[in-house]
Amino acid sequence: MAMKGNPGDNRTRSSVSLFIVVGLCAFFYILGAWQRSGFGKGDSIALEITRQTDCGIVPNLNYESHHSGQAGATVDDSEIETKVFQPCPAKYIDYTPCQDNKRAMKLPRDNMNYRERHCPTEKQKLHCLIPAPKGYVTPFPWPKSRDYVPYANAPYKSLTVEKAIQNWIQYEGNVFKFPGGGTQFPQGADAYIDQLASVIPIENGTVRTALDTGCGVASWGAYLWKRNVIAMSFAPRDNHQAQVQFALERGVPAIIGVLGTIKLPYPSRAFDMAHCSRCLIPWGGNDGMYMMEVDRVLRPGGYWVLSGPPINWKNNYESWKRPKEELQEEQRKIEDIAKQLCWEKKYEKGEIAIWRKGLNADSCPGRDDSQVTMCETTTNPDDVWYEKMEACVTPFPEAKVPDEVIAEELKVFPDRLNAIPPRVSSGSVRGVSVKTYLEDNKLWKKHVNAYKKIIPIIDSGRYRNIMDMNAGLGSFAAAIESPKLWVMNVVPTISDKNTLGVIYERGLIGIYHDWCEAFSTYPRTYDLIHSYGIFSLYKNK
To answer: Which of 96, 114, 490, 531 is spaced 20 to 30 A from 18 at the CA atom?
Structure first.
């Protein structure tokens, strides 16, 4: 990903007002809150702001009036022709433009290429508003939404049958219930996480950010949240209908995604822990490419959890209905690749194995470098947008002093939320100093206080999934941080500053994205969208 210059980075106060106009109008569109639900007074507030801002047409939202090169320039709005977008046909209620199943079926199957992002051409793009399903209601507030989702919002029962014995999801009357089970933890995520916590420092704030590959309905991430660990979950849009949609309806971070042929849209050294619970990813295939990609996004000292096949194959090959020789070879390859990556196995019991990544380049004295392909040192490990995944090992960052332990630079959460991130203190982000970081923090605390006066219930649990379209250093998310909400911090690929690594060092989560394309999510999955400087950034794009 090449972070390109932003000629319009001198932002004015008028940009902040986009939170009110664009943020709230987009909120109604994505949430589908045009229908009264009766779930809380947030709906009446929303409808009143809708009336005041006239989201349907917005006749006075003229770009040139705010961005004219001449001071005092005016535009006659009476000559501007307004356009109202009509609703799309009902068949598009769950349309995901860049993960369209009809288009995917025509694409190559190798390495899950057909499940990756493939966006429509200009001629294929829709210019209509995605409708909500019949009977759609406002989601339950957090924490109730973790366990219950209105049936009308995601009316798909297939998982209740397919995963019935695994305790994923149950249908009760007009709601879906999520008991907290999973394929590898049918007795519940809490007991499963307790087992992991006997090895991984989950409870003390050392582990804050987690990556769940092949997440199902994201119960692992949902139950980690009450332990102050935030998980970025992903799964493809495949035959497990609506799994990511259910996750987001529950108020749990998730995107549509897959380990395929292109790199994950996250920076290097982002996650404190990565997890696979029977995720069906061929970890030993492609010369270890998928494990190497997990290694890239795992911070030094981070943990990788593998739960399910082939772990404990000796006792399970018959119940898994797979040849024991095949499973044995699969685990052998995983063990060999882990050694190449300098991962130390810390635990194996039952069907769970846990490895820990080395702390620095000196953590692997016994590795035969002649047998390992290292990524080119000239390649930026954070340059990932539509970049091909490679079977190479990302080098550790260079230590400033001998025996430096990179992992220990991060404070435990919540201290790390407002501490100086290592990428800032080291000067790794061009144009960002300790001074500008502190000033940015101070500014966004002020703005968020103003937002709370406009929306007093912003941290009441009513707004669970929040997106920041142009997150910068993550200071908006840090200022609004609450156990009842989370923020998807988006760093646009055309930004002149690659700050997503800083955001993860603060104990927040986010993703790279180009806003010229559709986001990797289902319709109606965010409760609030925050937009700051996004029109300036994409001017003339």
So the answer is: 96
